[in-house]
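Changelog note: in this version the structure field was regenerated for every chain. One regenerated record is shown below for reference.
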Amino acid sequence: MRTAWGYLLILAAVFCFGWSAHGWHNAKTELAANQSAEQTRQVVTEVTRKSGEVLEAKLAELKANEIHTEREIRTEIIKPVFSNVCATDESVRVFNQSVDQGERTLSGKPADIVPGRPAATGGQNRH
């Protein structure tokens, strides 16, 4: 019986030593994981900072270019005014009519309006 208690005591000591070794191993693994995470955080922070600096520099450059941009105003003359009359009223009318027809042809608009009255809304003839 004494030998059984001796073996049991040795088994308990080995179990306690194994438990402690397991705890040390877990602590070491957790420390390595924390150190790796900290290094990754530092690298990401540095890359983000450098990227932000590059972005700010580009934005400043674009803003500087925007300030020095010349503005151009374009006007379209709808009906020119001539100091000398070189065309009769009939010629101007024919010219305007041909321009209007050309615009309608290019845009696909109909030449004439739809004949008749538009349909009434809210009628009672829906089934």
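Spot check on this record: The helical segments are 2-67, 89-107. The CA atoms of residues 121 and 127 lie 15 Å apart.
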